[in-house]
Structure formats: C-alpha cells, structure tokens
Amino acid sequence: MxxxxxxxxxxxxxxxxxxxxxxxxNFPAYSSQLKQLLSISQVELNNLAFASDAGxxxxxxxxxxxxxxPLWLVLIIGSFLGLIGYGVQxxxxxNQIASLSYWHVFLLTFLAGNSICxxxxxxxxxxxxxxxxxxxxxxxxxxxxxxxxxxxxxNIVEAVSPHKKARTFLFLNSLLPVVVCLIATPLVxxxxxxxPNHMNVGFAVMFVITIAxxxxxxxxxxxxxxxxxxxxxxxxxxxxxxxxxxxxxxxxKIKELAGSWHKERERLRVYHFTMEENTNxxxxxxxxxxxxxxxxxxxxxAMEEIGVKLMLRRTNFWLYFFVYFFGATIGLVFLNNLGQxxxxxxxxxxxxxxxxxxxxxFFGRLIPSLMDYFYRGKGKISRPAxxxxxxxxxxxxxxxxxxxxxxxxxxxxxxxGVCTGxxxxxxxxxxxxxxxxxxxxxxxxxxxxxxxxxxxxxGYSAALVYRKEGGHEHGKCMGMECYSNTFVIWGSFCLLGTxxxxxxxxxxxxxxxx
Length: 514
Known about the structure:
The chain has 24 helices and no strands. The chain is an all-alpha fold. Residues 273-277 and 281-299 have low confidence and may be disordered.
C-alpha cells in the first residue's frame, strides 16, 4: 500500500504547478509596454488577451489526452506548448528573431493559452482521484495558489528587472512552468491510499499555511509596504511560503516511520499478543474500512454520470454555462484590462493593482474549500447558491468603478478578484457534482470554453468604446469616460447572471438538500 505521505506530496506538487500556471494573469502588468513595443492599437492588444483565453477553446484536447496518455506526459506537453508560445515571443521582443507579424504573435499567444489547460487538467484529475472524499477541500486549496501566479511573477520581475517588464515576463512565462513541471512530475500521480489517517489534521495545517501565505501576499501588495521593503525581500518571503506545505507530507512520513518502529518492537514481544486482541483488531479494521467506503460513496455522489454529448442537452448545463459566462468570465476580462483601466484613470500603481487582484483572488479560491471543511457531515453546500452570493457583489463592484477615486478602483479590484476566485474554485466541484467525475476532464474543459467567448465579446466591445472615446492620440484614452459605459454593461450582465444562478439553485435544490 502506498504511503499516505505520497498522497500529501502529490498535493504539494499540484500547489507548485498551480502557483506558476496562471501565466495569462500577469498580462495586465506588462500589456501597456507590449503595446508600445509592438506598435499596436488597443483593439489589437485586446485581441492578444483574447488569444490567450481562446486557447481554452481547445482545452478538451487535454481532457482526451488525460484519458489515453500518462498524466506525466500530458504535463510535459503542456509545459512545452507554453515554452514555444511565450519563448518565440521573447526571442522576437529581444530582436533574436528579425521578423514576426502580428498574427504570428496572436497564434503564439493562443498556443501559450492552451498550455494552461493541459497543466490544469492534470492538477484537477489527480486532486479529485487522490482526495475523493475531500474533493472540494483539496481542489480549493490547490486552485487558490493559481490566484497567486500574477503576484509571484510580478515579484520576480520587480526584483530582477523592473524596467524591462515585457521581455522579463515573457521569459519567465516560457521557462518557469517547464522547470516546475519537471520537478513536480514525479510527485503528481495517482496514489491509492485505502485508509488515510489524520486527514482532518493534515488539511487543518494546510489551511493555516495557505491562509498565512494569502495574508502575506495581500500585505506585501500594499503600496505603503512595497515602498519600504525591498523587492528581493518580498520575493524571498513568497518563495519560502511555497515550501511550507512540505511540512505536512514530511510530518506524515515521520509519523509513519515512528509507527512502524513501534509496531516492530511490539511484534518482538510475542507474549503481549493474544487471540482476543487479534480478533478485536480485525473487527476494528473492518469497521474503519466500512466507514470509509460509506463516506466515499456519499461524497462521490453526482446528480448524473454523463458524457459531453448528453451534458450539452441538459438545461442545467446551459444555466451553469451562462452563470459562469456572466460572472467569472466578466471578472477575468476586467482583470485582463486592468492595466489600461488604471492608465486611463491616471493611476500609476498598475503592478500593485495586479498583485492586489491576485492576492484577493487567492482568498476567493480558498473560501469554498474552507466552507466545505467546516460544514463536512452537516449536509451539502449548494454550489449555485454560493454563486448567487458572490455574483451580487461583483455587479456592485462594477457600478462602484463609476466613482473616479483610486480607493474605488482598489476596492472594486479586490471585490472582483475575490468573487471571480470563488466562482472559479466552485466550478470544479459543480461540474463533478452535476455531471459526474468519469468524464470530468472533457466536461469541465467544455464548461470553461465560455472564457474565450466572453473574452472576445466583452473585451472587444470594451476596446471599441475605448477607441471611440480616446480619439487618435497614440491610440490612448484618458479619463473616466473610457470605461464608464463598459462598467455599466458588465454590471448589468452580472445581475442577469445572478438571476440565472437563482434558477439553477431552484432546479438543483433537491439534490443538494439530500
């Protein structure tokens, strides 16, 4: 039987992968500089942001690959797609490649965006299979670290090369995922542990470490802190926090070794063993196994176990699809445009805003797993109801952006970051609960295909309004009018998404009340 320490070690490997897999989330930090280097308009820049998200349209390829190929190979393929996508762009920006058209850059960005799906698919599949009875808890902890990606990359750039952001971000986006994937490949695999002990304690320690990491990320993103602390010091702190989860598998292994040593000593003392004790031990083991089996069946329950063809015929799927479309996807579009939004409002702290949204997104992704952890055994938490709870504040945040103060910008960015993170984390369990785990890898990649669609629709319309209001001065628009109409439209769509989430909640209430 494999050691439970390897089960926790797989979770640590997934945490590291998720921490570097949000390569598209750092786009706002260097988009303005990239716009100048490529001499492109705001519409063309928005198309590049769309290209990164459009890679998810073919995310289902990674789902199929995970069925027929070893997971380690799927992981390596994903990392090398990113190496090609971002690496060739880096060579172009640094004049190592003489000629590269805009459409070449577009296709490379598309390829890089698709690479994220491959790594995500492996992370989700391994997490769900290794922690069947604690699926949402494990998924929430690991995906929360993807919310830190922009923060981690920004800290590295600020410490290494703050004046050449575009080329440094592209270099890191191409190389860092490959390095981490090679390190994590031996760790991220299916571990069949029949009777895991002390799962509650392990998750409690993970939560403490994760929350502490999030608090550090938020504090180190605030301007009054960054102005007084060196960039290298902040970077060292975040890297140390990524190593802290190793405490759990190490402590589990030490406990296992101590336990086996104790059992060996007891085995040598034969006179302590009696038939009565052996019978009691066997009875206790059988009770534990029966209890675990019953828990697994209960936790692995789904409304139905269906493939993608049947899923596309379900009303619940389309409600869920558009709730995500009008919620998390609009939030992601806002975060993609954060650089231009801050610039148009005369706010100079773009890097600070990106780090802030990343840090609050981290907590947003973590909240659902905290709720599941504390409510275990007290009934299921309705995922659609949770979406309703965060869609309303997201709509309010967009209307708050009509206020021209920096405080409104920072507050709205934090709210949108949290709520987008919550929906992103909830979506993984929602797909599994509504449509089953057997075809999860393909089903969920179909669900998130709404992201590139929304990125194009909402992002392109925002870029058109930006260009209309900006006139022709270097393609720039300065002032509140650049995005005010866009914020009203986005907020209204969020309210529509809230209504759809209420309908989905009503349709699934019976299932979640069981």
